[in-house]
Amino acid sequence: MRVAVAGATGRTGREVVAEAESRGHTVLPVSRDPEGDQRDRAELDALLREEADVLVDFTVPEATVEHVGAAAETGTPVVVGTTGFDDAQLDALADAAEQVPLLRASNFAKGVQALLRVVRAGVEALPEYDVEVTETHHSGKRDAPSGTATTVLDEIDSAREDALERVYGREGHHERDPGEVGVHVRRAGTVRGEHEVTLAGDDEVLSLTHRAESRRVFAAGAVDAAEWLAGREAGSYEFSEVLA
Ligand SMILES: NC(=O)c1ccc[n+]([C@@H]2O[C@H](COP(=O)([O-])OP(=O)(O)OC[C@H]3O[C@@H](n4cnc5c(N)ncnc54)[C@H](OP(=O)(O)O)[C@@H]3O)[C@@H](O)[C@H]2O)c1
User: What CATH number does residue 164 fall under?
Assistant: First the structure.
């Protein structure tokens, strides 16, 4: 398969290139030009139309929206790993998914898919317990909280009858409100990605943690998704469908 990789020189994109090549795919890097400007749109359209079977994107939201627009234009299936989109950008991705197959995941680690199921089971079993979410990433990460933390928070909400109010960090003098979920973000060193959900009641604590030990795990999941997506109907797909 011919796999176009946007962000091919980035931390995750480099791993995607290595993973795709190790599986015998031909990789087409889609990088910015040496001045750091986005690739010319006509050139990008031509590359996707003539040379790519699928596009995998790990860049920044504004670049991803541009790349996905080109993929929609040229009928190229697209796997999106970028996180941190605003609502308008998410709408643009949804529009593209009406024309091409599009799979977006905030985390391509299989263990995180399992974490989501375990978190749901924990929240359903312990509905009166306090819930706190903590994530840690390397100091170069731009968006906070991480896309994965937001996915975990959405899962917690959907497992409960009432939505919890998200409180981002705490300071000052007041007690914890039972209707809130604390969200804690740490940025330090080279940490690949760690997510912890704490469920605490009287005299006991249940901690559920996922830790990515290398970016290879994201690359492997993204290439699995690319192989699965190529040749499907237009629409929005989830990583859980690939694993199923
Ligand atoms: N879904 C997942 O499993 C998962 C896992 C890890 C990371 N991520 C997400 O993937 C994205 C990339 O993360 P990363 O750590 O690989 O980032 P990174 O090392 O900063 O790489 C991003 C790459 O994007 C490209 N790019 C295109 N337009 C850009 C612009 N305007 N500004 C900066 N870079 C631009 C650059 O590559 P070129 O110069 O080659 O164009 C850059 O190297 C983030 O949103 C991150 O949260 C998702």
Answer: 3.30.360.10
Ligand 1 atom closest to 61 (CA):
45
- Could you confirm whether 110 is annotated as catalytic? no
Those residues whose C-beta lies under 8 Å from the C-beta of residue 226, and which sit 6 or more positions away, are 1, 3, 20, 54, 56, 77, 79
Instruction: Tell me how far the alpha carbon of residue 90 lies from the centroid of ligand 1, in angstroms.
Output: 17
Task: Report percent pLDDT > 70 for the chain.
Answer: 100
Distance from residue 31's CA to the centre of ligand 1 (Å)? 11
Span 200-223, mean pLDDT?
98
- Are both 203 and 128 inside the same structural domain? yes
126 and 101, same structural domain?
no
* Residue 194 pLDDT class (50, 70, 90 cuts): very high
* Marked catalytic residue, from 141, 173, 184, 195: 141
